[in-house]
Amino acid sequence: MANTSKETTVDVTGMTCAACATRIEKGLNKLSGVEKATVNLALDRASIRYNPEELSPREIHQKIQDLGYDVKLDQTDYNITGMTCAACSARIEKVLNKQPGIEQATVNLALETATVHYHSGMISSRDIMKKVDDLGYKATEKNEELQRSNDHREEAIKKQQQKLFISLLLSLPLLWTMVGHFGFLSFLPLPEILINPWVQMALATPVQFYIGKQFYVGAYKALNNKSANMDVLVALGTSAAYFYSVYLAVESIGHEGHPMGLYFETSAILITLILLGKLFEARAKGRSSEAIKKLMGLQAKHATVERNGQEMILPIEEVLVGDILHVKPGERIPVDGEVTEGQSAMDESMITGESIPVDKHPGDNVIGSTINKNGFIKMKATKVGKDTALAQIIKVVEDAQGSKAPIQRMADTISGVFVPIVVGIAVITFLIWFLWIDPGNFASSLEKLIAVLVIACPCALGLATPTSIMAGSGRAAEYGILFKGGEHLENTHRVTTVVVDKTGTVTNGEPVLTDVKVAGDFTEATLLQLVGSVEKSSEHPLAKAMVQGVLDKEITIQENKEFESIPGFGVRAIVNGQQVAVGTVRFMEQLNVEISTILQEKEVLESEGKTVMIVAVDSVYAGLIAVADTMKSTSKDAILRLKEMGIEVIMITGDNQRTADSIAREAGIDVAIGDMLPEGKAAEVKKLQQQGKVVAMVGDGINDAPALAVADIGMAIGTGTDVAMEAADITLIRGELGSIADALWMSKKTITNIKQNLFWAFAYNTLGIPLAALGLLAPWVAGAAMAFSSVSVVLNSLRLQRVKL
Prior knowledge:
Among the domains are: about 70 residues, Alpha-Beta Plaits; about 60 residues, Calcium-transporting ATPase, cytoplasmic transduction domain A (Distorted Sandwich), CATH 2.70.150.10; about 140 residues, HAD superfamily/HAD-like (Rossmann fold, 3-Layer(aba) Sandwich), CATH 3.40.50.1000; about 120 residues, Calcium-transporting ATPase, cytoplasmic domain N. It is about 50% helix and about 20% strand. The strands form 6 sheets. It has a 7-stranded mixed sheet with strand order 18-30-29-28-19-26-27, sandwiched between helices. A 6-stranded antiparallel sheet has the order 10-9-11-17-12-15, with no helix packed on it. By secondary structure, it is α+β, with helices and mostly antiparallel strands. One of its GO terms (molecular function) is ATP binding.
């Protein structure tokens, strides 16, 4: 089943609190064919992994609708060219309507347009256009920029603002009647008309049933599905106040004077305050996904494409793999690709964090959305759309923000049973006041019931974790740390031991020329010229390092003759009539070269982790050449920082023990284990786990993948292989060890933030309910406290967006 499973994400509308999210999650997980479903209240999104052989996306959407919620559809309008008759439009319409993820497609032949309603988590606009292209027609997005800005959350906020304005307009006169009862505000004149119960009813009724309709609808859906949520509490509390006031108003007919103890202002002001809180909450939740918006803003919008010998500017969505693109100085690289012509320097700081531009020549890879600084280049597109590096980063961040941390399960469980308990407490409170504390005083007892119902809404509880996860993972992404899920963001702070691979992790991963020891009449330049001239014909990585070292010193390399490579020994060739040999001690012994006096010097260099080659010219010792994989400039400080955090650091490598010890000494690592095969690394990690340690493995190669998978937390260096990144839980894009400490620190900050949120969410309820039950909180004060509890939780989460690493 796992091999055939698919994943989809859908935007859900109509959720109001954690109980809604929990109900949808439970309902989806009960569906046959669903392997795992998680619902994120902060994102208004459901992520579902399912077996397509047992279940269709439409059935998933139907289930969500059956539960009383709705699935938000994206709508895109397209211009269609190439249609000639009604058969063409009918064919396009028929094929599109069969695509998974498309709910409805209509094609207009006369206008040459198509309107498609679809689920963006299942099918993209690019996929739709490609499907039309495959049918022999051409589809392009209509008003693309306008649609991009047409965000459903912004629309929802605008509607909330309009409702709040109307609600305020109607509630303020009622608020006047409330404050008029306070002795210290007696100087405020209270118009006679506002005391009239029918005027109060006229003002309160639109607020109760038009503005407050969303609470009744939500409560009905919840109760219809045999559960309860925030809407149930609000609907119960405000309805009790409103209908009791109506009863008193009707009772007063035929009596002189106005009835006392009306609660029209209570119900209206409660709804207004809750709307205000929801508006603040929606705005704050929108800010918590700023990281995604920033990343998306980095994407190029258009590309200059060379097709059929002509240059044309196309939307980025229309670039295909294999296209030749022209990129001018100052422009963004449109997609991932390879330079085919020209040279320039690229600002890759958005990916690597390095501010120094990287030189690019034909054959070099370039990353989409990085900036071409100073030269014109042509490039071939190798990855487009969702396959580009930036799109993958955005996907990882979105997945992390949409996932659940283990700590959230506790909050979900509590919020799921919270509402029925609160209703029970409210009823008991009413009975105690009505029967014992203030016998027969229905109005006073009702007031306490309303206050308990309203103060107890579990919104803050449901938002406590997801908003922190969103803000924390988004901020981490800005620093080049990609958490694959909320559980990894939570668990990382528990790490006690960090195991690092050597090559490409602690070190640069590429050998460089480090030492040249010259003998006899040779100078360094002449010796290096001979070595470079011989080694240029070798394919060995060490040979390439030596040749590069010679070229870096601006020494000319000459032609050689009769080149010969002896595997495991070395190479030899004739350069300028001289027989030059470069190789091991055994090779020199074969050639009868006297080297006994330099063996100690060679061992000293090897004890420093260097690979040493002996050079002989015409069978006479001429010097030593040392090559080594150099340590990254940031590694030593990064290791020191981890130690200061109390983290044990261990290095594991496939290199020999002597090289491992040398690099470990230089980096400040106390324990180094050499001569390790990939499975050996994984076994070593398991051994540490058996000792009760929480282990993070950091690596960059295919050989690190087993250990990355076994570790409690796997961290892949972003400059490494795709296999390593696939096996890891966290990707460190910048490729330096300093990001390990940053990841641990970000995890600790996020967990602290979540705990603060949960504390305040529980505090509001545990303190608020007894105060309300004791009659110390007026219903409107309870409403204000409840509304702003959610806002305070979200605002606290947003502090993570200002964390400095």
